[in-house]
Amino acid sequence: MKKTLKTLLLACPGFQALCRLLTRSHVRALMYHRFSDEATGDPRFLDRATLDLQMAYIRRHHAVWAPDDHVAAVGEGPRPAGACPVVVTIDDGYRDVFDLAYPLFARHRIPAMLFITSGFVDGTHWMWWDRVAWVIDAAAPVRREFHIGRTACELDLESPAGRQTAWNRVADICRFLPDGRKQEVIAELAADLDVELKVEPPDQYAAASWDQVRGMVAGGMLMGAHTVSHPILSRLDTDRAAAEIEDSQQRLTDELDLQPNWFAYPQGGPADYTAETREIVARRFDGCYIAWQDLAAADDPYTLPRYCISPDMNDFRWMLCGAEYLGLRLRAALGLDTGLGEFYWTGAEDAVEEK
Q: CA 193, 196, 198, 203: dihedral to nearest 10 degrees?
């Protein structure tokens, strides 16, 4: 029903233009992660053709800002004139950013910012959710029960859809666990499914190299820090959280001969950073992004909200024209919930049980 209504409204003459007019002051900061040659059916990946359409659409209807423009707009400085503003960001630093996305950003003259997990690019870490995916994809086609603490996960590995469901369930629980416990669970899962964990990520999960990152910088891409190993900062003690933040900034400075002045919290949800980690970030950076639309925090340079982008072009147009933001504002005015929703918190109670 919602998808049908979106389609009908977007097709109405003048609807998108009216939404843009009503949301002229709202900065649309977009968050991408993974890219692919062709459509995969996995919402985490954006295929090359759809990314091309999205960048062209931004150029046709919007002013393209850098994060520095965004932070100026919520501060005391003058607001840049022009159409509704859009900021493009990418998290983590996968190789497909260099192979697929960067050439399109360059062609459309989009000054995208890549938030780099420095240990990932160094080759000392690979992303925990990719390790879960590798184990589940490499396992024999079986059905079994796997326990994470006191929580049982039914794993149906006899079909691609079953493997995707299994990954979703395990990842939803793991993301709320302390980083060390995550790695223990992944090792237990690998042993339970008789899969050998690799030290380095396979090609489909590989990071860009520092030479590739330097090439993107030379081509106009902006770089920000995203910690060393992508932990949930709120689940670290203050000293370790500070090291993750500060060491990632220093690593980028050493490799790129520039000091990144922007940061993005790993995972970036409301439970993933604290007042203490915000203050650590504020001492070293000009601004920081979260990964959802928090209306109450949109004027804080260190909790600037972003939209997670999917391959669905109707969803993209709906968000970009401002209709989604207007809906959030309406819900807030009516006293209704504007948070991430129940889906985000799946696994939170399991994580508490693990402590």
A: -70
At 186, give phi and psi (nearest 5°): -65, -40
- Cα dihedral 71, 74, 78, 82 sign: positive
d(CA 154, CA 280): 40
Rg (the chain; Cα; Å) = 20
Q: In sequence order, what are the residues at sequence separation of 6 or more whose Cβ sits closer than 8 angstroms to the Cβ of residue 347?
A: 172, 173, 174, 175, 176
Q: Where are the domains of the chain?
A: 26-125+202-321, 128-192
Query: In the Cβ-directed half-sphere of 77, how many Cα atoms lie within 13 Å?
Result: 11
pLDDT in tens, 133-181: 999 999 999 999 999 988 999 999 999 999 999 999 999 899 888 888 9
Structure tokens at 41: 């059916």
| Fold category of 26-125+202-321 in CATH | TIM Barrel (3.20.20)
State how beta strands 63-65 and 34-36 pair: unpaired
DSSP secondary structure of 203-264:
GGGPBPPHHHHHHHHHTT-EEEE--SS---GGGS-HHHHHHHHHHHHHHHHHHHSS---EEE
Q: Read off the pTM.
A: 0.93
